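hey m, so remember when u said the tokens were messed up on ur end? i reran from scratch. heres the input so u can diff it against urs
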Amino acid sequence: MSTERHSAPNPHVLFRRLLLHLAFSVALLAASLGVGMWGYSHYEHLPWRDAFLNAAMLLGGMGPVKLDLSEPGKVFAGLFALYSGLVVIAVTALLLAPGIHHIMKRVHWEDRSDTK
């Protein structure tokens, strides 16, 4: 048995970590939205409001609004849809990680691979 003493987790550290992860998630979403808006305006010549709508709908998992796309626009929309799915998974993991880490520390979850 381990005789280590675990100190109580500092709520300020957890809150700071949550804010950091939230800021990174928002930055990732904003950058992804910008790339999507650029692609729709570049390949489909959409005004920025329509490009925003299409990119936001893809990032939100709802699908594109404009369906009659050009050939390059179809390729972009397909690649952006695949990328958007990965962004959703990454943002979910980023937002859940501090809480899961806190719970693991709270229940003293340890790596048992070094035991004989």
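this time it looks ok to me. The radius of gyration is 21 Å. if urs says something different then somethings off w ur setup not the seq
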